[in-house]
Amino acid sequence: MRIELFRRGYKVHEVQAAELLREAFPVAYGEDPEEEVHNILQENRIAAKAVFNGEVVGLVGAIPQYGDTGWELHPLVVRKDYRGKGVGAKLTAFLEEAVAEKGAVTLYLGTDDETGATSLSNTDLFQDPFRKIAEIRNLKGHPYEFYKKMGYSIVGVIPDTNGIGKPDIWMAKSLVR
After folding, report:
1. Which of 79, 84, 103, 153 is positioned for an S-S bond with 68, CB 3.0–4.6 A?
2. How many helices (H) does the chain have, and how many strands (E)?
3. pTM of the model
4. Confidence band for 177, pLDDT divided at 50, 70 and 90
């Protein structure tokens, strides 16, 4: 498997990346994942792909924010049959190096809890949010634990952003070495 920068022009890989987004995020990208791939591959962004036997099996992107010092990791997706095999970790590490080279000192992300996968869902996060964050539990395989293993910390939540009781969990990592 190769991890490499993802640039425009190789249509086969762009179509495969769109299918990855459609499969993993049917609500967000089910209608038009091709548009999201187009956005991911804009010149001011950084994207990387994992390729195995000529097929895209993973994709990660980053959007510059706050000048070049803060970048948002968006999105990260790995084909279902490659999950749990280190592909996401390799993509994330590759992306961290790439944005650090551009001057990033912080990489952050939002990871939605739309399905009640953590103890932060279905609760009033306007009441004592820091205690609730400190006591977070993973109920249904939410990806925040993957990011914690990669060195990210929960830095906040935005309550009810995906509907009542469906928060967005914000995580960040310092890239200063």
Report:
1. 103
2. 6, 7
3. 0.95
4. confident
